[in-house]
Amino acid sequence: MFLQRLILSLAVLIVTFIEFSLSKSPNIIFILADDYGYNDIGYHGSEILTPNLDKLSAQGVRLENYYVQPICTPTRSQLMSGRYQIHTGLQHSIIWPPQAACLPLEDKTIADALKAAGYATHMIGKWHLGQYKKECFPNHRGFDSFFGFLTGSGDYFKHRHVGCGITMNPACSYWTGWDLRENDKPVHDYDGIYSTHLFTQRAQKIIQEHDKTKPLFMYQSYQAVHGPLQVPDEYLVPYQNVTDRYRRIYSGMVTCMDEGIGNLTQTLHDTGLWDDTIIIFSTDNGGEIYAGGNNWPLRGWKHSLWEGGIHGVGFVAGPSLPDKMKGTSNNGLMHVSDWFPTIVGGLAGASLNGTKLDGVDMWHSISTGAASPRKEILHNIDPLTVTPVPCSTPIVSSDNKTFNTSIRAAIRVGDWKLITGDPGNGTWFPVPNSGNIPRKNTDLPDKRVWLFNIADDPREFNDLSEYHPDIVDQLFNRLQEHYTDSVPVFYPDGDPKADPARHNDTWSDWE
Question: What is the rounded distance in angstroms from the CA atom of residue 147 to the CA atom of residue 166?
Fold first, then answer.
C-alpha cells in the first residue's frame, strides 16, 4: 500500500512538473543584424565563415520565405510595434538624428507587452527609432535597461556619429557627437572598444546576472555589419585572399559578429538558461553592395523593393523547439511585423488585447510545420517617393478604383508580387571576383509596373504584368485599399536644436 501511494505521488509530481515546464514562459533572445546580406551566411553558400550561425540554425528552423523592410527604421518600427509603416506614419525613408520624430508613443512595443507579462526586458545596441525626447528612448518604451546608441550608425571604436542625413539650413552634414549611453545617460568609459565586442560583453553580463525567477527578453541589436567598414585586424586573417577591400573587411565584421553570437550562446549554457531559451535571428534589410554586402542570386540590395532588399535571413533555434522541427526549413510566408504576436502571444502566452496589429502569430507554423496563416505582405506605400508616370502607363485598376503607379509601393499576395513607381536599383550583383556575371537591369526608363511570381521566379527575371492584367488589377485594388487605410506620412524637417554641440558634444534629446 505504501509503495502504491509512493508511486502515485511520484506520478503526480512528474505530471505537475511536465505541465509546469510546458506552461513556463521561455527566455527569448532576439538578435538583429544590421545590413546583413542574403548571400552572407554560410548556409546560403557564402564564402564568409559563420560557424555559430550555421550551427544554431541547423538545430532550429530556417525561415526561407521571410521578409523585412529595405532600410533600418522601417524594419525596427515594425518589429517593435507589429504594425505596418502605413499605420505609424513612417512610410518614408528613416528617422534622421535631427528630426523630431519617433515610433508613435501611443503604440505599445513588444517590450511593453512582455514586461506586463512578467518578463525582464533588456535592449543592447542600435535603436534608430527616434530620440528627440526621452520618452522615445528604449528604456521609456518597455525596456528595463538600455545600453547602446540612438542614431543609425557610427564609428565602431570611437562611438561617435557624424552628419545629419538631411538637408538643413544651416548645413548639418558636419555635426558630430558622442552616441553611446546607458539608459538616459551618455557613457564615455568605452572609447576604443569595438562595438561588436562591447555589445556581446554586455549581453553576457545581463545573462549572468539575470534573476532566474523571471523569464528574460533580450533584444540584441548589433551595430554590425552596417558601415563604416571597421574590424579588428585579427578578423581579416581568414580573408587575406579576398581582393575586394570592402568585401574583405565586411567578411571580417560578419565573422566577428558570428563569434559574438557564439559567445552569447555559450553564456546561456554556462548559466543554465539555455534549456529554457528561444533564440531568434534576423537581418534588418538586404546587404549594402557599396559596403561589402551581397544578396546574390537575388535582384537589388538595401534601399530597394526588389527581393535583394527585403528577403531576409532569419531563423529560430533553441531546445524548446519540438525535436521534429529541428534542422528544418519553413517556407511559409512571414514578415518582420509577425514577431510581435508570435513572441508575445505564441511564445510568451501573453494577451494581445488592446493591440492593433498587422502582424500574424506564426508560432504554430514555426513549431509544427503547419501552413503559414499569412497570405499577404504590404511591403510599403511611400507617397513621398513619386516618379513621373508617362502617358502610356495605366494608373486605373478595375472596379473604378485607382492607384497611382508613380508612387513607390510593393505588395505580395500569395506567390504574386506587384511593384509600382521606382523600386530602386534592380541590378543582380554577384560577389566580387566570384566568376558570376552581373546582370544589369534592362527595364525601360519609364517603366512603373512589374508583376512577378516569386515562387517560380525568386530572382525576378520575368515581369508578367502584361500577361496577367487580371492579377495586376487585383493587386492594384489591394494597394488602394491599404492606401486608403493609411495615416499621413510624418517626416519633419530637421531641428537645429538637435546639434550635438548644444548637448555637451552628444547626440541626445532636445525637447
Answer: 26
Q: Which three cell numbers stand for residue 390?
A: 508617362
How many Å apart are CA 152 and CA 166, to the nearest integer?
13
Closest Cα to residue 52, out of 274, 263, 258?
A: 258
The alpha-carbon radius of gyration of the chain (Å, integer) is 23
Percentage of residues of the chain with pLDDT beyond 70: 93
Just list the catalytic residues.
72, 128
Q: What percent of the chain has pLDDT over 90?
A: 89
Check residue 20 and give its pLDDT: 38
Residue 400 has pLDDT above 50, yes or no: no
310 grid coordinates:
527585403
Collapse the DSSP code of 437 into the 3-class scheme (helix H, G, I; strand E, B; otherwise coil) and give the result.
coil
pLDDT at res. 347: 97
Q: How many residues does the chain have?
A: 511
Q: Nearest Cα to 301, choosing from 121, 496, 431?
A: 431
Q: What is the DSSP secondary structure assignment for residue 113, as one 8-state letter?
A: H
Give the pLDDT band (50/70/90) at residue 308. Answer: very high
Instruction: Give a three-class secondary structure readout of 255-278.
Output: HHHHHHHHHHHHHHHHCCCHHHEE
The pTM for the full model equals 0.94
pLDDT of residue 501 exceeding 90: yes
The predicted-structure confidence for 224-274, as pLDDT tens digits, reads as follows 999 999 999 999 999 999 999 999 999 999 999 999 999 999 999 999 999
Torsion angle (degrees, nearest 10) of CA 84, 85, 87, 90? 160
Phi/psi at 244 (5° precision)? -75, 115
User: How far separated are the first and last CA of the chain, in Å rounded?
Assistant: 75
Task: Read off φ and ψ for residue 497, nearest 5 degrees.
Answer: -70, -10
Q: State whether the Cα torsion 204-208-209-215 is positive or negative.
A: positive
Cα separation, 308 vs 419, in Å, equals: 14
Degrees to nearest 5, angle at CA 35 with 32 and 38 = 90
Strand-strand pairing, 66-67 and 334-335: parallel
Cα–Cα distance between 125 and 147 in angstroms, integer? 6
Please report, as a single letter, which amino acid is at residue 261. Answer: I
